[in-house]
Write a structure and sequence with these properties.
The chain is α+β, with helices and mostly antiparallel strands. The chain contains five helices and five strands. A five-stranded mixed β-sheet has the order 2-1-5-3-4, sandwiched between helices. Strand 3 and strand 4 form a beta hairpin. Helix 2 packs across helix 5. The longest helix is centred in the C-terminal third of the chain and has 14 residues. The radius of gyration is 15 Å and the shape is globular. Bound molecules: FE2/S2 (inorganic) cluster (2 copies).
Length: 156
């Protein structure tokens, strides 16, 4: 099939797509968007998180055929023309990035959380990020990054 999507604000097409391959595969291997990471391919780690029509999803669990005609935002789409998104800056400054494999997923999930709740409690942060796994940081620096990003955004 030929897949048509709007990705990070641009109309994109991919040729020769099998309906059953994952959206993650399409993004990484067909559309040159390697920001979303493939760490488990089973919906367990959150490293492939993207927005699909405004909802946070694991792109490894979305079939390419399901994504036809959809609007997708990946971690690459969060940065603006002026540079990194404040959530991305906070992860760098707080030291929430080590190997970086989990980072795109945490950033998209944090972006989603702060859109819904600009001043989350620690419990709300932990709940929102419960689907994202990190093998390196011990999570404390990631929590610091989310608090930093929320603190800079201020109350809604
Ligand atoms: S790669 Fe999709 S959840 Fe782990
Ligand atoms: S920074 Fe390495 S898995 Fe999280």
């Amino acid at each position: 099939m030929r897949l048509h999507c709007k990705i990070n604000g641009e109309n994109r097409e991919a040729e020769g797509v099998w309906e059953g391959e994952s959206l993650l595969y399409v993004l990484r291997e067909r559309l040159e968007l390697p920001g979303s990471k493939n760490a488990c391919e089973q919906g367990e780690c959150g490293s492939c998180s993207v927005y699909l029509d405004g909802s946070l999803v694991c792109s490894c669990l979305v079939l390419a055929g399901q994504a036809e005609g959809s609007e997708i935002v990946t971690v690459e789409g969060l940065a603006g023309e002026d540079g990194l998104h404040p959530v991305q800056e906070a992860f760098l400054e707080a030291g929430g990035v080590q190997c970086g494999f989990c980072t795109p997923g945490f950033i998209v999930a944090t972006h989603d959380l702060l859109q819904r709740n600009s001043q989350p409690s620690d419990a709300e942060i932990r709940e929102a990020l419960a689907g994202n796994l990190c093998r390196c940081t011990g999570y404390e620096k990631i929590l610091d990054a989310v608090r930093m990003a929320a603190g800079r955004a201020g109350p809604a």
